[in-house]
Amino acid sequence: MAKKSVATLQTGSKRLTKAIKMVKSPKSGSYTFVESIMAPDATKDFFNKK
Fold first, then answer.
1. Against a cut of 0.70, is the pTM above it?
2. DSSP 1-47
3. Block mean pLDDT (10 aa), the chain, length 50
4. Are 18 and 36 in contact (CB under 8 A)?
5. What own/partner pairs with CB < 8 Å and gap ≥ 24 does 35-40 have?
6. Distance from CA of residue 5 to its chain's centroid?
């Protein structure tokens, strides 16, 4: 399925996480990468949604 890469970023006093998800396009069948920077506790929801 999709591999995930999680990096921890620190900017000032906030702790953020950059998550990268590989998503398969239903139209062409090719894969694209979706990146997002979020709070560490929101990564599980990001990887579970389609």
1. no
2. ---EEEEEEEETTEEEEEEEEEEE-TTT--EEEEEEEE-GGGHHHHH
3. 62 79 91 90 86
4. yes
5. 37/9, 39/15, 40/8, 40/15, 40/16
6. 7
